[in-house]
């Protein structure tokens, strides 16, 4: 019976990743024509106690190679009790007309926390296309222009990849983890299943946002970006999730293991509200984890076979992403990443035992 389970787990994993690898061809064929015009866009960035990062983020946005008169930056101070707002205002004063700075106010709506901050930022956004990023991100100069080129007439919503800045083993594990999750999300969407998106590199037409009532009308979850993304997709918005260096954003890594755990818990709690395809992906991953755990008790050959299949499947799926994002050098960390990933699968079910999520100093019940 154990041998049959090992075979089922391995075949399921191999089949799933082969399907995703085929779907990746659709992702890589997504149109991104040369820019013939520059629509008016708004970049909304919400920040709560981000005095270490917000200046770097705003300067990166000001340095975009997109016409300055066609790009509005909306910086939202989300009840910070550090110097975040002062830094926003100082940079805005140095660049008159480029940055709109607002501070959140109490309101009676579904929107809470970051969702409320973005909703109020949207009240001041004038662009027909909205780009969202986070205060701890450093968008490359080509970012805005590359994202906008994907908004062909038949595209309403565009998710894109975010890279964790890697300068050592711990941050490299986070980078590979983010790439793995985003690759699954991108390929799943190409198959017609919206299972995830990263909110720090998420763009949409204003009309698609208004059609679902925005964050104020979307039921609150601790993964507010995915809730909005899925609502727009289900409303009929034409949605893509490209993978390319131009549209890629860059975010800072978690500094400590505790930060990683809190991040994973928030994502896991949000994932509980996922769709059947999302549950299927997670279930097959758990099957492979169990297979990996019990195979050594069968034989070393069985363990080696399970390990080899998982390693080969992950590499088959992720290497094209790494190459397109100019991160092929991270292959040197791929073997330790396998253990990092497996450890997560052990920990995530434990994180789901608590409904309390602490996020940016606020406590939520999911």
Can you put this structure into words, describing what you see?
- Helix content is 51%, strand content 13%.
- The strands form three sheets. It has a seven-stranded mixed sheet with strand order 3-2-1-4-7-5-8, with helices on both faces. The protein has a two-stranded parallel sheet with strand order 6-9. It has a two-stranded antiparallel sheet with strand order 10-11.
- Helix 2 packs parallel to helix 3 (84-94) and helix 6 (169-190) crosses helix 13 (334-351).
- The protein has two domains: 1-32 and 150-197 and 231-349, no CATH class; 33-138, Spore Coat Polysaccharide Biosynthesis Protein SpsA, Chain A (Alpha-Beta Complex).
- It is α/β, with parallel strands linked by helices and 366 residues long.
- It contains 13 helices and eleven strands.
- Which blocks of ≥5 consecutive residues have pLDDT under 50? none
Number of DSSP helices?
13
Total strand count, please? 11
Distance between the termini: 38 Å
State the major sheet.
7 strands, mixed
**How would you state the average pLDDT, rounded?**
89
Strand order of the largest sheet: 3-2-1-4-7-5-8
Layout of strands and helices, then pairs:
Blueprint: H1 2-28, E1 41-47, H2 54-62, E2 71-77, H3 84-94, E3 99-103, H4 113-122, E4 129-134, H5 143-148, E5 157-159, E6 162-164, H6 169-190, E7 202-205, H7 206-211, H8 214-217, H9 224-234, E8 239-240, E9 249-251, H10 257-271, H11 276-298, H12 300-324, H13 334-351, E10 356-359, E11 362-365
Parallel strand pairs: 1-2, 1-4, 2-3, 5-8, 6-9
Antiparallel strand pairs: 4-7, 5-7, 10-11
Helix pairs in contact: 1-6, 1-11, 1-12, 2-3, 6-13, 11-12
């Amino acid at each position: 019976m154990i041998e049959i389970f090992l075979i089922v787990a391995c075949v399921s994993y191999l089949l799933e990743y082969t399907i995703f690898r085929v779907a990746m061809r659709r992702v890589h064929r997504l149109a991104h024509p040369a820019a013939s015009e520059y629509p008016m866009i708004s970049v909304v960035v919400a920040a709560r106690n981000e005095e270490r990062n917000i200046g770097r983020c705003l300067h990166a946005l000001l340095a975009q190679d997109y016409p300055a008169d066609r790009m509005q930056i909306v910086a939202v101070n989300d009840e910070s009790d550090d110097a975040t707002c002062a830094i926003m205002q100082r940079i805005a004063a140095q660049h008159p007309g480029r940055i709109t700075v607002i501070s959140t106010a109490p309101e009676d709506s579904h929107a809470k926390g970051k969702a409320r901050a973005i909703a109020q930022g949207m009240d001041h956004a004038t662009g027909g296309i909205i780009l969202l990023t986070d205060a701890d991100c450093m968008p490359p100069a080509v970012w805005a222009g590359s994202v906008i080129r994907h908004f062909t007439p038949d595209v309403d919503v565009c998710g894109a990849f975010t890279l964790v800045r890697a300068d050592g083993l711990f941050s490299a594990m986070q980078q590979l983890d983010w790439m793995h999750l985003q690759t699954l999300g991108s390929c799943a969407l190409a198959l017609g299943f919206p299972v995830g998106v990263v909110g720090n590199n998420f763009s949409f037409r204003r009309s698609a946002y208004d059609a679902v009532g925005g964050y104020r009308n979307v039921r609150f979850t601790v993964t507010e970006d995915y809730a909005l993304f899925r609502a727009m997709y289900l409303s009929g918005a034409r949605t893509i999730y490209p993978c390319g260096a131009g549209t890629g954003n860059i975010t800072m890594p978690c500094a400590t293991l505790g930060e990683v755990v809190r991040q994973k818990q928030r994502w896991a709690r949000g994932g509980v509200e996922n769709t059947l395809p999302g549950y299927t992906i997670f279930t097959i991953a758990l099957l492979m984890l169990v297979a990996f755990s019990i195979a050594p008790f069968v034989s070393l050959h069985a363990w080696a076979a399970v390990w080899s299949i998982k390693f080969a499947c992950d590499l088959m799926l992720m290497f094209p992403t790494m190459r397109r994002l100019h991160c092929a050098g991270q292959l040197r960390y791929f073997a330790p990443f396998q253990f990092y990933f497996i450890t997560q699968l052990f920990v995530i079910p434990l994180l789901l035992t608590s409904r309390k999520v602490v996020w940016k100093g606020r406590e939520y019940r999911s």
